[in-house]
Amino acid sequence: MVLGKGTGKSASGLQGQRVLVVEDGWQVADGLKLSLEQWGMIVAGPVANVPEAQRLATECCPDLAVVDVNLNGEMAYALMDWLADRGIQVVVISGYEDLPESLKKFAAILHKPFTDATLLTTLKRVMRPRRTR
After folding, report:
1. Among 5, 11, 77, 119, which lies 20 to 30 A Cα-Cα from 41?
2. Using CA atoms, how far apart are residues 67 and 58, in angstroms rounded to an integer?
3. Are strands 42-47 and 18-22 parallel, antiparallel or unpaired?
4. Cα–Cα dist 20/17, whole Å
5. What are the Cα distances from residue 56, in Å, to 42, 61, 62, 65?
């Protein structure tokens, strides 16, 4: 992740949204947390494994989860499904170029490295209020 400037709270439109960060790389996790908090989001985590992610998701009921595909060698596909089954939007982040087609069912996929601007644009699109029919 590449941190940028000029994307402050007032411009984000994401204030008050609850987000769970699941990432095992401490530099990426810290960068995500910092950016999300600067945009006014309420951040749970970061956590680096599936059991902690499930515990925290149960406790804080996030609107959104940003989840790395590979958590210390454990693929997080089942966690992503578990989160989605609970109505939590999932943004997948990965350093892998080739990912399973099944991940396309989630709200978005971001390939590392990504910029703050890309992350912000993605989150705004994902969290945009949905129209009711």
Report:
1. 77
2. 15
3. parallel
4. 10
5. 13, 8, 9, 11
Written as six digits, the tokens of 51 are 């059991």
CATH at 82: 3.40.50.2300
What does pLDDT average to in each consecutive run of 10 residues of the chain (133 residues)?
Answer: 48 89 96 97 97 97 97 96 97 92 94 95 86 45
**5 is a domain residue:** no
Residue 126 inside a domain? The answer is no
pTM here is 0.89
> What range defines the domain where residue 39 resides?
15-95
Return the ∠ at Cα 4 (arms to 90 and 130), rounded to 5°: 35
